[in-house]
Amino acid sequence: MVRLHIHHQGKVIQIESKEGNTLLNVLRENGFEIYSPCGGNGTCGKCNVMVRNEGLVPSCLYPVKESIEVILPDKREARVLVEQHQHTVVLPLMPGKCAELSVYPHGIAVDIGTTTVVLYLVNLITGVISETMAFLNPQTKFGADVITRIQFTTTHDKGLEILQKELISSLNRVMSELIRFAGITENEIIKIVFAGNTTMLHLLLGISPKSLALAPFRAQFLEEQILQGEQLGLKSLPQAEIKVLPSISAFVGADIVAGLASIAPSDKYRNYLFMDIGTNGELALVTDSKILCCSTAAGPAFEGARISCGMGAVEGAISAFCENEITVIGDEIPAGICGSGLIDIIAFLAEKGLLNSDGQLKADYLVVPETRTSSGKAISITQDDIREVQLAKSAIASGVKILLKQAGITFDQIDALFLAGGFGNYINTESAVRIGLLPSEMKEKIIPLGNTSGTGAILALKSVRFDEVIQKLLERTQHIELAEDEDFAIEFAMNMHF
Ligand code: FES
Predict the structure, then answer these.
(1) How many domains are contained in the chain?
(2) Ligand 1 centre and the CA of 35: distance in Å?
């Protein structure tokens, strides 16, 4: 056995480990959260920790052979978006039969994002949201994107169990806080609704997501699931109704269903685009007669993974950039760049001619010198970073074009571009248009909606009528497999340009 002294949040904790285990595993096993978006495959370079007398080391590649002293970075708080949008469909308060299970019924709507999980506590007598809380999905440490997490379930003993347990125990921790805050008991939680992407919902229910990552990419379930609180071990009344909203396909999940269903029909917006850019890019084109939707393999570039100085939208991240001025979340010393900052910087480079239309960077671009960063490492944009963004933005832009083509309509027939998710609220739309992530034709019609998945989950919690809205939506929805469209490859090549 070897002994490790861990410096963490002002304390020194002593732990022991078998010789030869990786430092990342040792830290995880002892409850320390280390950001490791590639899931410990040694490819993302984000899991660095400081080892005394050795400096920064990638913890997933570092075998613990002797006693060492490890200094962990401070935990950073995530910036999360928790408000609802104003285009929400209005439904009567009808939580269903489960409301009879308590005289003071409450429910919780949960949006399980790949990166962030948001919970809304709702009083089911008044319909008022009493409190909202969010936390970083604890599964992030096993991989930033869904594919890496699916791999984790197949390559690790009890991988599926570990991921499910991590999520449920974090949910229970935050649910306890919500319950305490509202001054109720867990027996008053009589309904919980979950929205999320298809992979997250498989992991929540402990159902293997393996088939989602293998051709022909089939889900184990897409339809709504109803369970009882005790089946998932949630902090609720044991008989509480647990509803998992339906998904459309392996990569268009209940988060998109919930978001689309939450938008009120309006004569002003008869045809519209709906985009959710997160660790994946999901798109939908809604017209009078049908809804076409698809997912793009955009990858998590806009969430900081696979970008040399990338990081999530947490304190210390550069979130906006213009010449001579950077904005850092939390007004901290900069530590890296998150998606919105990345888009601004690339738009700036393209505008100044430092990046040509093919995506060639004249030279690495220094954003912040090492003397002014929290890590002592310079923050720069490299050619590889540009390549990652190019692939991601082209996938999304091409997806939009294919949806329009298949629907037989043009941009001038589209009334709005609704942007879902936190990312949509924080990006500078001009920069996003400049780099070709969002269509220039829609520049004046972009409307950020915030966390539409959460909004949909709240609606499903409050009103059984939302089930009918979802049902009707699913009946007119068609899933498009982008790779099967003969024009996709050409579009993809054309949209690589800046
Ligand atoms: S390099 Fe270690 S987790 Fe990615």
Answers:
(1) 3
(2) 8
